[in-house]
Amino acid sequence: MVPRLTLGPHLASALMEQFARFDGMPVHLAKSADLAMKQANEILTWSSNLVVALDQLNRNTEKAAMASQLRVEERVHELETQASITHRKILETNDLGPSRTLKANFRLIFGPPRESRYKSNSTKSVATSNNERIDVIRDLCENYAHGVIALSTAYPTKAWTQASQEVFNGIVQMMKDMQEQNWPVDIVNIIDELEAERPMSIKIRFLRGIIDVSCFFFILD
């Protein structure tokens, strides 16, 4: 992760000043020892100032990186806590509750791409980012179907589409770490409803499969 760094006005000014001095420094043979000493002292002073400015830049960069990493960790922990509360309620009651969040996620992840006749550059950029993240989630379905269901039941779409890349990476790791669960069979009913409503990616069948298997073993028990 490379933080975006904005130089403070004083630091930026100091760097520009030192570079300008080096660039404009006349080069000629000194006619006396005193002049040579003076030039040497000036070069030493400018060099020292430049080293100080660069050292300050490095310290600011390290502080910015640490602060950025801390914000990412706090946000990921917040999302993990939110998901844990939601999943506990679903699994204890075997009830999804309102299905709007789940349906919105399934439509976005497994449904056909949203087409817009007129797209600005910023809209195109957002669409590209969303499609890349959708591809990542779809690729998790075969081996981490429980994680994909966990994402879809816990978070509104904007929690993962609008998150920074670092936070999204944290969400992906949470999906991979998700243990097998006995999800409510209502999820299969929602999949059936959405498949009747619009074409859905074949990857959604992995989600249906783990719930069907869970129900099968539940009946055997």
Order of helices and strands: HHHHHHHHH
Radius of gyration: 28 Å
Total number of helical segments?
Answer: 9
Oligomer: single chain
Low-confidence stretches: 1-7, 215-221
* Strand segment count: 0
Average pLDDT confidence is 82
Residue fraction in strands: under 5%
N-end to C-end Cα span: 48 Å
Largest sheet: none
Global shape: elongated
Structural class: mainly alpha
Roughly how much helix do the residues carry, as a percent range?
over 70%
Description:
This protein has 221 residues and is mainly α. 75% of the residues lie in helices and 0% in strands. It is built from nine helices and no strands. The chain has helices spanning 9-24, 33-93, 100-110, 121-140, 145-154, 157-161, 165-177, 186-197, 204-220. α3 packs across α5 (145-154) and α5 (145-154) crosses α7 (165-177). The protein is elongated, with a radius of gyration of 28 Å. The two termini are 48 Å apart. Residues 1-7 and 215-221 have low confidence and may be disordered.
In short:
The protein has helices spanning 9-24, 33-93, 100-110, 121-140, 145-154, 157-161, 165-177, 186-197, 204-220.
Give keywords:
single chain, about 220 residues, mainly alpha, 9 helices, about 75% helix, disordered N terminus, disordered C terminus
Q: What is the element layout, followed by pairings?
A:
Layout: H1 9-24, H2 33-93, H3 100-110, H4 121-140, H5 145-154, H6 157-161, H7 165-177, H8 186-197, H9 204-220
